[in-house]
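Protein in question reproduced for absentees:

***
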Amino acid sequence: MSPFHAQEARVSKENSGMRTISIVSTVGAVLLAAAVSAGISLHAQQVRMQAPVDKAADFPLSDLQATYKEMDVKKLLTMRLVEGGKYNVNIRRLTAAERPLVHPKTADVWVVTEGSGTLVTGGELVDGTRSANGDLSGASIRGGIERVIKPGDVVFIPAGLSHGVKDTNGITWLNIRFDTKE
């Protein structure tokens, strides 16, 4: 290959790479704009406190209710109250159904505090995709058990079990999560 053709091939390859970067950047910007216009929060998950090791952590009802209002204003679906590494306590607040999940190594305990919804557990996750943290999310659950959950209900969801809120006009629960597998 002549030096001219080698230079021409290198420039062509660089231009192709630049076009790919440009396309990826444009798609990313469009998705970001769509999320912002839809009012979806793109902030990293907020953590209220690291888990104390020398005292209890209290969350009075008035504080929880103020947090619910803050989440509504900021359009947050999750607020982490306590981060403990292999365990955490979250508030989950949905206004509509969400994609079902499977946490391969983490169990959940849900304590419903407001609203209601149809919870589906078990069965087979349909069209599951794995996230960076190892969890799976899917389009739906096939063959799961459905039941309506409401304030006062407590649900234990073992690691590896498909679960998701299928129908709701609004539901809030405390989600106590802890690793059960390595």
